[in-house]
Write a structure and sequence with these properties.
heterodimer; A: about 375 residues; alpha/beta; Rossmann fold; 6-stranded mixed β-sheet; 3-stranded antiparallel β-sheet; about 35% helix; B: about 425 residues; 4 domains; 5-stranded mixed β-sheet; about 15% strand
Chain lengths: ~375, ~425
């Protein structure tokens, strides 16, 4: 009898397993959000989530840690389960956790399902696409020379100037090297714009002395998930990072999460810069704007807080899909800013406020920030 | 020639023949052995199903296949060979592996084949098991046609959980084919008319597979030790050109490596058998008679313990001379019945009663409760499990889909297990 495996049935079993694994990931997603160590980015936009092993319940001994069994007795268990005589080489034994590879889109889908996020209704806008080489220019590198068009221009010039005899072939001017620099036509790019939706995500963060590493880590987690979701909902997403203490500036992503300043906190500086950024961006077309501001809520003065609220009311909220303020707790922060914001702009549809004291609060904050489907 | 090659480099043929010759000279009887080269993907598919090409549907096979494919893609895992007992014994090799690697496993495989043929634990299963699995797959698909995939798969998952409840003693001389025992719950279920006909058929599918696969689980240390002993003894000098010698040493070392205190069946088996050889024992008789539990019991003595890293690591801070008996006892206990809890059962009226023979190790009670609830859905009447938790006797009762845990009432007359809890 031949020992060749039947693949079709096995692939069906694998699909069934993957469906179960996805369902398990969905159940476990909030825990995954709280524990970022369980999600590892891989090449090509993939991520690997480690999830509890999918296992059928069975009659077995309690874990050796709890019982009197010797060390390591429980170890080979998972491997034994495969009831196989295979000899594996390399990392021995099963990992305690099961690892599931996901594309970003799939993970966003799980996020949406787990947190019951409503899909964002598309606002059709013109979106830049990858340009196509369908245009022509008078200048360019030789490699992009369009021989046919160049030849036709040379021919037209030759005919017009009387240099061409009716007995000559049409290609004669080119063949004779009679084309002049003015005849040359080069292929060129045509910027492509197609209907779609584009989003501008602005992360603002207080980097004053009172914001510690833990708080920044929470902001990083929150930013990861919000961007993941928004990218799944819009055709194009651009991200701007603004840091502030007493002054504000635009920085790159890496700096955003590393920088630490010693100064005090003047939130209006950041909001002013955001308003300017909006002026600049929105001048060249519509964007769906999402701003996320994180701070410990310990603003410089009440007067500054008032100018923040003015900036929000006049220049920011009318132009954004959503402005989310996430207040993290620090040892020093009074947290006063949140209360003043809520008091001054109660129930504003574009404003969401949430407290993020610990990783525990991330799922709720994400639900608040993304749950309006705007 | 009893050794046959398919889909492998022709240069291996001479090596295989020579390996067989050497094996026969030392008294091994590998019987018919086929070496086949497979695409890696097909090798993984085979491994996912425990070495058998056709098995019934189950997502756990898909999970194992996925794990192997993923591990190989990431370079963290590679299969050297996969041996399927039968007639012929089939060794599947990754066609992409290099020639020296393939040459190295020849003797290893021949020793496995010898043990499959000689061990009394394997003889009862017989050569027809491969065909039996394929027929089982067909029967399962027939029931899927009739009752739908979801229903049948749920039943099979439950039966997989119960597949631990078999009686290893029934393996000898294939006794399980003729009779059942008080430890053989699947045997009782397969014959009991509380279950629907198709359910009984699924139970007999699960039971034939549980017994058919049991020998490998009971003899891991013996089997791998035996194969490692012969591949390290019989490797011929003329095949060990310098490059291959390094390769061989590396492969051998990786296979037998163990972290301190970790049980690697290759290593423990190899060390035990070398120890036995040093004492002038009859190795051929040992491999024909023993499963892991009895092999360790027979060979792990003080002399061995003093040399063994495993024993030393498990002895912890205590001196080995004092602690080895405890280590040996714990090891034996963990090997008993292939590492599974021992339960016996009886039918009392309508209800099914399982009694756990507690040996100092508690059960994982939450999982036991799920198993019990699933068993109730099959039995269609209350199901009880008696066990101990932290020394206190307990009844777990599944009634109406809910599992209750309550202490065993003292002083109940007549029944060794104490009176069964009744519905309130």
């Amino acid at each position: 009898m031949s020992v060749e495996p039947g693949m079709a049935g096995l692939l069906r079993d694998e699909r069934r397993f993957l469906a179960l694994a996805r369902a398990a990931a969905l159940t476990d997603l909030e825990a995954l959000i709280r524990d970022p160590g369980r999600l590892v980015p891989r090449a090509q936009g993939h991520l690997t989530a480690s999830l509890p092993q999918l296992a059928l319940p069975r009659l077995r001994f309690a874990d050796p840690d709890d019982g009197p069994g010797g060390p390591g007795e429980g170890k080979g268990e998972g491997k034994e389960e495969a009831d196989s005589a295979a000899h594996e080489r390399g990392a021995g034994g099963l990992p305690a956790a099961h690892e599931l590879d996901l594309e970003r889109g799939e993970l966003a889908g799980l996020l949406g399902e787990a947190l019951e996020l409503p899909p964002i209704e598309p606002r059709p806008q013109a979106v830049d696409r990858a340009p196509r080489w369908t245009s022509f220019a008078a200048k360019g590198p030789r490699s992009l020379l369009h021989v046919g068009r160049t030849g036709r221009r040379a021919l037209r010039r030759a005919v017009a100037s009387g240099a061409w005899n009716s007995g000559d072939s049409a290609g004669a001017p080119l063949a004779a090297g009679a084309s002049a620099p003015g005849d040359e036509v080069f292929r060129a790019r045509r910027p492509a714009r197609t209907p779609g939706s584009r989003a501008l995500v602005v992360h603002l963060m207080d980097v004053s002395g009172s914001m510690g590493r833990e708080q920044k880590e929470l902001v990083r987690q929150q930013a990861f998930w919000t961007e993941l979701w928004l990218r799944s909902q819009h055709d194009r997403v651009e991200v701007v990072h603004i840091v502030h203490d007493a002054a504000a500036r635009v920085v790159d992503e890496d700096t955003f999460f590393r920088i630490r300043e010693a100064g005090g906190t003047r939130i209006s500086a950041a909001y002013g810069l955001l308003a300017e950024e909006l002026d600049r961006r929105l001048a060249c077309g519509p964007w769906s704007v999402y701003a996320f501001h994180h701070s410990d809520g310990d603003n410089w003065s009440l007067r500054d807080t008032r100018s923040c609220i003015e900036l929000l009311e006049d220049r920011i909220l009318p132009r954004v899909q959503q402005f989310a303020y996430g207040q993290v707790r620090s040892e020093y922060g009074s947290g006063q800013f949140r209360h003043e914001l809520e008091a001054a702009l109660p129930g504003h549809e574009a404003l969401v406020v949430a407290g993020i004291d610990a990783a525990e609060d991330l799922p709720a904050a994400l639900r608040a920030f993304l749950g309006r489907g705007r | 020639m009893p050794v046959e090659l398919r889909g492998l480099h022709p240069a291996l043929a001479a090596s295989a023949e020579a390996a067989e010759q050497r094996a026969l000279e030392v008294g091994l009887r590998p019987g018919r052995v086929r070496f086949q080269g497979l695409e890696r993907r097909h090798l993984h598919a085979l491994a996912a199903r425990g070495g058998y090409p056709v098995r019934h549907r189950a997502w756990r096979f898909g999970m194992e296949f996925h794990r192997l494919e993923r591990g190989a893609r990431q370079g963290s895992l590679r299969l050297l060979e996969l041996v399927t007992p039968g007639d012929p014994t089939v060794a599947s090799l990754d066609r992409a592996n290099r020639l020296p690697e393939q040459r190295l496993v020849l003797t290893h495989v021949l020793a496995h084949a010898d043990l499959f043929g000689a061990s009394r634990w394997f003889s009862g299963v017989g050569q027809g098991f491969l065909g039996e699995l394929a027929r089982n797959a067909g029967r399962v698909e027939d029931w899927v046609q009739e009752h739908g995939a979801a229903t049948v798969e749920r039943r099979l998952e439950l039966l997989q959980a119960l597949a631990e409840l078999v009686d290893p003693e029934l393996l000898l001389r294939g006794a399980y084919r003729a009779r059942s025992s008080e430890r053989d719950l699947l045997g009782t279920l397969a014959a009991h008319d509380r279950l629907a006909g198709w359910e009984r058929d699924l139970v007999s599918v699960a039971r034939s597979e549980a017994y058919g696969l049991l020998p490998q689980r009971l003899t891991r240390i013996t089997n791998e030790g035996w194969a490692s002993l012969w591949h390290s003894t019989l490797l011929p000098a003329e095949h060990l050109r310098s490059v291959e010698a390094t390769e061989f040493a590396g492969t051998h070392a990786r296979a037998t490596a163990a972290a301190p205190g970790e049980l690697n069946p290759y290593r423990l088996g190899l060390e035990l058998l070398r120890h036995a050889a040093g004492q002038g024992r009859d190795l051929l008789a040992l491999r024909a008679w023993h499963r892991d539990e009895s092999l360790v019991e027979e060979l792990l003595d003080e002399e061995f313990a003093l040399e063994s890293e495993l024993v030393r690591a498990r002895a912890g801070d205590e001196p080995v001379r004092g602690a080895w008996r405890r280590v040996r006892r714990d090891l034996l206990r963990s090997l008993r019945d292939g590492g599974r809890p021992r339960l016996h059962h009886e039918v009392r009226g309508e209800e099914l009663v399982l009694v756990h023979e507690h040996d100092g190790r508690d059960l994982q009670l939450d999982e036991a409760a799920s198993v019990l609830a699933a068993l109730e859905s099959l039995w269609r009447a209350p199901v009880h499990l008696r066990t101990l938790r932290g020394g206190e006797a307990l009844w777990l009762t599944s009634r109406g889909g809910a599992v209750l845990t309550e202490p065993v009432h003292a002083g109940s007359p007549g029944r060794p297990g104490g009176s069964l809890p009744r519905a309130a």
